[in-house]
Amino acid sequence: MSNLLIYPILLPFGTAAASLLLWRKPALQQAVSLAGVIGQLAACIVLFSAVTEDGIQVLQVGNWPAPYGISLVADHLSVLMLMVTGILGTAAAFYARGELPDHLRAKSFHALFHVLLGGLSGAFLTGDLFNLYVWFEVMLMASFGLMTSGQRRAQFRGAVPYVVINLLATLLFLMGLALLYGLTGTLNMAHLHQKILSHEARGLLTAVAFLFMAAFGIKAGMFPLFFWLPASYHTPGIAVSALFAGMLTKVGVYALIRTFSLVFHHDMATTHGVLLVIAGLTMVTGVLGAAAQNAFRRILSFHIISQVGYMLLGLALWTPLALTGTVFYLVHHMIVKANLFLVSGLGRDINGTMDLNRMGGLYQAYPVVAVLFFVPAFSLAGFPPLSGFWAKLLLIQASLQVEHYIVAAIAVAVGLMTVYSMVKIWIEAFWKPLPSSGTGGAAVPYSGWKMAPVCVLAMITLVIGLGAEPVYRLADTAARELMAPQVYVEAVLGGGRP
Amino acid sequence: METALAIVSGSMVAGGIYLLLSQNLVRILFGLIMLSNAVNLVIFTAGGLTHTKPALIEVGRSVPGTAVANALPQALILTAIVIGFALLVFMFVLFYRSYESLGTIDTRQMTKSAPEKPHATDTTTARQEAGS
Asked: Cα distance from A346 to chain B (closest Cα, Å)?
């Protein structure tokens, strides 16, 4: 029993409530909001160190014993995701402070922002499938609000498909959940693991597994269910879109990893075989889509999809090395991708547009911004010694190890295509002189609120790249926990009772 | 009874998906409502239908004396209904606001509609939008 697990969920909701109470005092609301994200980050760090020292932490909420009540479980994968949530939440909140005028108009911003963070933490910590559904809904509601908070026309255009598709995914998830409950009589993931070990209706379970795959696949933006993502991610404010890009699709990937390691382990040849094909297609379509785009954030949105393909690849290969690669990739990608969205905001502040045709001259006028773009962009493309290189190396090595040469070739080729996209942004926005039709030119002062989070995230990318060993070891531990769920099951069902 | 309910919820899902494929936002809305009710019915059916007593325990006992209905699926449905209701209300407002803003409920028209005209009062927003 460890009460530490509740704080990363409780603190954001407390902050959200407080910021609603301070509706008429924007300055105070802002201060509470920043204090809230720092508090959550601290709670995540405490939980992280508890898990790395003492192993899996479990909290049976309300002291109800395991299969009957709701269990909160923190294993290495959960806490790694939580840590990144804390870091990105803090970075986005500080950046949002720099975007202040936009958000002063929408006073609900802080409340929605913290509810989103609380929902994310809940989704990463829960050990119960129905509870996971509830956390997904919490996140979804908050993200709907944030997505439309500017009430601009482009936002409505992006939000309508976003809302409809995500609602459909949720309903698929709920239907899968109902059928799974009908088949096994439980919704606790550890208990499900045991029940499915001895379950006879394997074919039915596989059918249900594909319902879950479709539901989480929509959330993760995997092929062919990704089209809502590039249609909507470029419409909200910069800080919000960075948080979405970093976190929301990755919750889908996390849910896929969790369910397809712990729950649906009965027919891996079928489920993980299909995942492998989908992973390859996701990588290719994402990167090809990006090549056709010509706006900063749209290119980045398409790259989220191709990167999700890499993560699914590791899950589909299902070897310890491949899963290590997936976890490493998740951590690396969330930080890098969020940072790229933040940098795109800096570029827009200077050039006044995100259309690459009308951007330019950033390198000459703002070399610091150029460096801050360079680090995450070439990390995303997989240049050594940045973090993306190690992540890709692990996955390609893992696919060669099990002799999946085609997937390995796709992974390498997609990496090269990513370089193409990043170089395109580099040349268009940073290298070429400002076109005469551009609106920029007037010196824009650096905003500390915006620069600080970008710098910190770039530093983290460098640290993960240069000191890959500790992160690798954490990812390796997480992967081994996923491959041998017995420890997880025992922690939830056996050792968790007071 | 299970068979009948399975057929009913199956056809509701089919109807919901059919409506979702439409270009009309109102039909899409009805499709989602239908789908959401179908899913609630699935939870109810998959949870097992029994002709037994409600899950109430007599005074002075700690376990029910006779077989009682499983209360968990009902609790799940209740949660799902509440959440689904909230989402549908949000969607209703969103569709209405986007109709006000974009002037159409046809999804094909919505994506095709002319690029943003800059507002006289809010040039930064329009500028951002043109570039995003």
From this structure: 12
